[in-house]
Amino acid sequence: MKSAVTIALVPEIKTGPWIYWHDLETGMAKAADLGFDAVELFTASADAVAPDRLAALGNQFGVNIAAVGTGAGKVLQGLTLTDPDPAVRSKAVAFISDMIAFGAGFGAPAIIGSMQGNAVPGVERAQALEWLAEGLNILGKQAEDNGVKLIYEPLNRYETNLINRLEDGVNLLKSLDNQHVKLLADLFHMNIEETSLADSIRSAGSYIGHVHFADSNRRPIGLGHTEMTAIATALQDIDYQGYISAEAFPWPDPDQAAKQTIESFKKYLPRTHEL
């Protein structure tokens, strides 16, 4: 298991659960100083950061890119994979395809969270899920062609009416034609939807390709009531080898939030820093 911390470079999502903001170089330097293995990036588009600059910073600070988020496609452009308008769905696929190619340059998967959308009024949920599966099949093939996985994130009921639990996410992935799509196990969303976070992780097993590390109140782990010991054991039981990335509010400030996060990694997931 490897540690990561989020850096968001999109002013329009400033109130979101991201540890570091605005300054890519400073965020990467601070992540490296604390001992994080990687950073997870949220950019406005695939061309918002020059790949050469990102590679240079990664080499300079010795940190990898764990994943790239696609949420700006919805926030800035209103794009989702389940929009009733096929032209909008096509634009959403194109936006995510570009993010897949950008991330693949660093061996990093793209994450589909908010861009999955919802079953909006007038659209049956079954139809929205069919559109979602169509998009994931296309994008999963794109990820395969680029040598990376695609990460799909079940969200809590207040953010989507499509897939809320890992079990339902597994069933969705099993229905796809492409097997290069993996699940994101976000501990915050799971605290709302799952009966047992540890049991859900064990059941999903190898379908999990990424983990978001946040407490029950979406503050850094250790500042809410999430029972991390059982979760850490479950991740070890499924032999999870991917990134565990802090997508949490920068509370009380980014530096203290990052410090709290890395201390929690060392407490609950000591193997992260031994591998």
From TrEMBL:
Top-rank taxon, per record: Bacteria
The record ties this protein, via Gene3D superfamilies, to:
Divalent-metal-dependent TIM barrel enzymes (3.20.20.150)
Q: Which keywords, in A-to-Z order, does the entry hold?
A: Isomerase
Q: GO MF terms on file? A: isomerase activity
- Tell me which InterPro entries the record gives: Sugar_Epim/Isomerase, Xyl_isomerase-like_sf, Xyl_isomerase-like_TIM-brl
Q: Which residues form the Xylose isomerase-like TIM barrel domain?
A: 29-267
Q: Does the keyword Repeat apply?
A: no
Q: Which Pfam families match?
A: AP_endonuc_2 (PF01261)
* Name of the protein: Sugar phosphate isomerase/epimerase
